[in-house]
Request: fold
Amino acid sequence: MQISRFPSVKLKGTSATLAFLFHNYNHSKRLSLEGSPEMINIFILAIFLIVNLLISKIYFKKNLNIPIKSKGILSKERKRGFQLAEAGIFVIFLYLHFFVLVEGYFPLFVRIAPIIGFFVLLNFNRGLELWMTDRDSKAYYHNWLAATIMSIFFAVLAAGQYL
Reply:
């Protein structure tokens, strides 16, 4: 397959596929912050992630000495009800995500609603579990902060679609 700009270079396999995608992407769309909604949304998301990191890592962890406690979904220290709730949230996320993909065109905020909803509910569930089991450590602040910031990001994104 001859994809390269240089006629003497021939690519095979995965390299050819990546080169083809990169070549078509570069020539079909020039990304700039002016007028490109995707870039503006990525910029807004980056701002929210930076704010989350600053509050969580610097203010909560260093200034207030609130530790970050994370446990996997199948950890033995977790309560069974919260594990089942996470599994249910994941199944609902998969169903909604594939429904949005298959059913046709939806605006951007509807297409990303399942993933944001998944992370908001997941962080809220984990924060609720930490609040119920280890209220004194205040580690649930980190999870609830992440859920709040993701909710605000989604609200800004949804409002931006109608402005």
The longest helix spans residues 37-63. The chain has two domains: 1-30, 32-162. Helices lie at 13-28, 37-63, 80-102, 108-111, 113-133, 140-162. The mean pLDDT is 78.
